[in-house]
Known about the structure:
Blueprint: H1 7-17, E1 22-23, H2 26-33, E2 47-48, H3 53-66, E3 70-73, E4 92-95, E5 102-106, E6 111-115, H4 120-129, E7 132-133, H5 146-151, H6 159-162, E8 169-175, E9 181-184, H7 198-201, E10 210-217, E11 219-220, E12 225-232, H8 235-249, E13 253-260, H9 261-271, E14 283-290, H10 296-306, E15 312-315, H11 319-330, H12 332-335, E16 342-343, E17 346-348, H13 354-368, E18 373-379, E19 384-390, H14 397-401, H15 404-417, H16 436-439, H17 442-455
Parallel strand pairs: 2-4, 3-4
Antiparallel strand pairs: 1-2, 5-6, 6-10, 7-11, 8-9, 8-10, 12-14, 12-15, 13-14, 13-18, 16-19, 17-19, 18-19
Amino acid sequence: MTHRPSSATLDRLAAVVGSKYAIREPAAMDGYMREMRQIWHGRSPLILRPASTEEVSRILAIANETGTAIVPQAGNTGLCGGQIPTEDGREVVLSLERMTRIRAIDPANSTITAEAGCVLQSVQEAAEAADRLFPLSLASQGSCRIGGNLSTNAGGLNVIAYGNARDLCLGLEVVLADGRVWDGLKGLRKDNTGYDLKNLFIGAEGTLGVITAAVLKLFPKPKSWETAVIALPSPQAAIDLLGLAQAMSGNRVSAFELIAALALEITIRHKGVRRPLASSAPWYVLAELVDAVPGAMAALLEAAMEKGLVSDAVIAQSAAQRAELWAAREMISEAQKPEGGSIKHDISVPVSRVPQFLKEADDAVSRFMPGVRFISFGHLGDGNIHYNVAQPPGMDKAKFLDSWHQMNDVVFAVVAKLGGSISAEHGIGRLKAHRMPEIKSPVELSLMRQLKTMFDPRGILNPGRVLPE
């Protein structure tokens, strides 16, 4: 059980990092108290900005001793509120933004060791400088940080080829709730010596320990890309195209993004993106092949058109055009804001069931609220769809957003029917913690609670996130 920290406790915690890096003024705290969706606005008596694992260790030892709740925060780009303190002002924020060292790069072993505060883009650039690729790619890569990427098991654009953040991590350094440090920074691809502890902390959203550094996998830097925006009649045609692309390219598909017509239209309308195709279609795919045989994309499209899967397509002829095509996909989230309220879902189903999900969810939501608009897009290659429902034209935004939980009920019922997940890559955080008893069996919940109690017996680490209190 945590307690409101006393002035003496706050002074002890602040002394660990020094007054310069202990923020107490409300105005200076504001950026740490809000998240991009503006759903939560927390309060905190103190923000701590340690510069080392040793300082994190000392902070957690004091917090554990005094029963002070700690909310770890990396880049504050999370979409489920797990990084934002509660509104009662009891929780201390632990920001890892100063822990930004690249500790080591081993090109021969294809690994990079980075601290949790490293911005994702800086890790990508460090890999590039070593003639390697770190393939985790997110729209927020200029501001999200490695600690948060691992704590939420981030996915992104290249999961079909390289896997989630969990698949890209070989080792971790973690500070436990009582201040002990687990040094698991091994660059081993084979280590069959017991339980795989690192996978307990990846995706745990800071509830079991604070990740302070990681050994990450690197890959050979691709020598060529072939990128295309493709018009299709249906999601099923996109599934069929994916299978054809994997077969014809020798499994060289690195990205395969499904985009609904409205998602593309609002990006053109609000973000100034150039229309990629002269013709329009109900659905589009942004596909990319890496290091494929030259001309593989053209051959794929020719075969797909013969099968009636594709009505039109454009292949990027330069790096600049490739960037333009990707912009049409990456700006969809921002382009939704001028359209009014949007109720967002980060779901996954088996790839083969994506068309069924889209049809049944659209039908169910339309029955629940006629006139809504569907801005669906996402990572078709791994079954992850960002199923966003925009308010009916003319409806009051606040009234629409008041239906958030009822809308979730409608969508999640379809997800459950199809054996899917209500959180594919964004985590649980504060947004979905109350749903865990609905989506996890009693056995699963019991095991998770036992792990939480074992790693954090006083419940100081991100209380109320992932597991409801």
